Inverse folding.
């Protein structure tokens, strides 16, 4: 089997498969850590952010503030590492960010707690979270550029969907490890040292991902752009900013709903609905399995019918179902099986947005600014609508007493995304040999007309 680069030159499919694996492993590690942090948020709050005299709710808010701060460094990482990726290549930047992510996550597993070093503990944790935010900002743009630029014609949706799929696997792995540790250890062991094991497991996985990325080739788009000079032809800044803003609007629903259902849910169920730690983790696992189940089919479907209709369906379903879902979870009369099915379905609906999302963002930018542009659009959306989700929801519930806040938050963000998708449609794949060299203005104009059709298989 052969695949074709942007210049229609046949190449072996081995580099494409290697790129898919190397990009996926890095994404898995990044999101495994976020899954672990979310799952152990109540434990981390007690160990790092809850000195004597501080209430549990206040400690949890501080934990989510640290979580949000890391997200606000993602756009910085996307800008810095994205510019490097557009100048020197995707490969060296992806090597650098996986090393940074692995080191920061492993160090969290050996940090002293508040009981040992006092107020220094939360500052050390926050510093490592900042390093993770910087590396995560560079990871997404590089990984998606890597996967979609190696994708065969007409398969960018499927290849890009692997980024989201490994996000789901990472979150599932984090929640699964947390659930396993909660099962085999008692509460005291888990709180004092058990949670550290989940972070320390990052080290061997990170070393494996680093080895894979050291063996990568540079992407065909970047190599060909370097030869032709296209990577030095940067579009006007105002056009890039307009495309980034459009991208943020399209993916904010995916960001908000994804984090509400997949990351914030465990602590919400424990702190607001008095669920046990094991029950909260089970709900997260079910939601994440549903999320993973629809991502690849949604990406593949978007190669056939377009990114817009698939993502729009997911956004509208979140708007319609968020409040009924939360009311069902609050109802003591509803069986556990029914609640589990609805939680699974909530994750599956988010997968409809996450599957086509990476390819949609990649198709909005030419090679010369792709790493930067798609990375910034995703990082800005996540910084505001994901990183702040836990903080906003927890603080709002605490202040208002309204336990439906998570549903309103996810539904409102998806409503805005639906409007952005309706106004500016995405085709079945809009960059091609010529489109990849076009500036962002041409991409956006074509997008508003409905986009191009997928490239035929050669």
């Amino acid at each position: 089997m052969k695949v074709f680069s942007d210049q229609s030159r046949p190449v072996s499919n081995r580099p494409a498969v290697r790129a898919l694996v190397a990009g996926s492993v890095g994404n898995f590690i990044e999101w495994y850590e976020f899954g672990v942090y979310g799952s152990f948020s109540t434990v981390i709050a007690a160990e790092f952010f809850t000195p004597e005299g501080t209430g549990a709710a206040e400690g949890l808010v501080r934990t989510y503030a640290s979580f949000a701060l890391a997200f606000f460094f993602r756009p910085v990482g996307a800008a810095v590492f994205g510019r490097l990726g557009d100048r020197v290549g995707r490969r060296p930047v992806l090597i650098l960010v996986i090393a940074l992510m692995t080191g920061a996550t492993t160090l969290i597993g050996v940090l002293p707690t508040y009981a040992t070093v006092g107020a220094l503990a939360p500052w050390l944790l926050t510093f490592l979270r900042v390093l993770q935010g910087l590396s995560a900002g560079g990871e997404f743009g590089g990984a998606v550029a890597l996967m979609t630029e190696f994708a065969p014609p007409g398969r960018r949706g499927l290849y890009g969907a692997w980024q989201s799929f490994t996000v789901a696997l990472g979150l599932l792995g984090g929640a699964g490890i947390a659930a396993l540790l909660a099962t085999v250890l008692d509460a005291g062991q888990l709180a004092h040292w058990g949670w550290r094991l989940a972070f320390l497991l990052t080290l061997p996985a990170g070393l494996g991902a680093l080895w894979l990325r050291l063996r990568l080739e540079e992407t065909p788009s970047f190599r060909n752009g370097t030869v032709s000079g296209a990577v030095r032809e940067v579009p006007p800044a105002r056009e890039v900013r307009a495309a980034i803003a459009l991208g943020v609007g399209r993916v904010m629903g995916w960001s908000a709903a994804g984090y509400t259902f997949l990351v914030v849910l465990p602590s919400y169920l424990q702190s607001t609905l008095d669920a046990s730690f094991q029950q909260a983790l089970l709900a997260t696992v079910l939601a994440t399995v549903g999320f993973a189940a629809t991502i690849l089919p949604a990406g593949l479907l978007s190669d056939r019918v377009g990114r817009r209709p698939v993502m729009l369906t997911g956004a509208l379903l979140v708007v319609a179902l968020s409040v009924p879902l939360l009311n069902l979870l609050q109802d003591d009369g509803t069986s556990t099986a029914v609640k589990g099915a609805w939680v699974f379905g909530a994750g599956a609906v988010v997968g409809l947005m996450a599957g086509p999302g990476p390819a949609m963002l990649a198709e909005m930018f030419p090679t010369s600014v792709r790493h930067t542009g798609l990375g910034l659009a995703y990082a800005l959306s996540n910084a505001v609508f994901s990183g702040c989700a836990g903080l906003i929801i927890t603080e709002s519930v605490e202040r208002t007493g309204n336990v439906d806040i998570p549903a309103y938050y996810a539904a409102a963000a998806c409503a805005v995304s639906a409007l952005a998708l309706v106004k500016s449609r995405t085709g079945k794949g809009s960059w091609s040999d010529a489109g990849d060299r076009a500036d962002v203005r041409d991409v956006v104009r074509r997008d508003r007309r409905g986009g191009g059709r997928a490239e035929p298989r050669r």
